[in-house]
Design a protein that fits this description.
Helix content is 19%, strand content 48%. By secondary structure, the chain is an alpha+beta fold. The N and C termini lie far apart (36 Å). The relative contact order is 0.17.
Length: 108
């Protein structure tokens, strides 16, 4: 059975919307997401974490320019100004470090 062009377009639009909602799942107050990238703010507290794009990002430690994170079960170090680091199929960049919080860019 053939599907008409208008019905295929509707099906494609619905599938795209569902994918977009799936990518945004887990985005909360500390996460601001677009379709394939999120800005994540994590408090500098022991065991502070957030769910983003299907993985957990957990704060480990920080100094004024370097942050250690556990993302998708892998511990990584990020430095301000460094190129994105590939972890768990995601690209992670450190945007800022303050005395209270850190901000990351996490994308697909």
């Amino acid at each position: 059975m053939l599907i008409s062009k208008p019905r295929r377009r509707i099906a494609t639009a619905l599938a795209t919307a569902a994918l977009g909602l799936t990518l945004l799942t887990g985005c909360g107050d500390d996460v601001d997401c677009g379709l394939d990238q999120c800005t994540v703010t994590i408090q500098r507290e022991t065991n502070a974490s957030v769910q983003v794009l299907g993985v957990e990002a957990k704060f480990v430690s920080a100094d004024e320019n370097t942050v250690t994170m556990d993302i998708a079960g892998e511990q990584i170090q990020l430095t301000k100004g460094q190129q994105a680091v590939d972890v768990g199929g995601l690209q992670v960049t450190l945007s800022s470090v303050t005395s209270d919080a850190i901000q990351l860019e996490i994308g697909r």
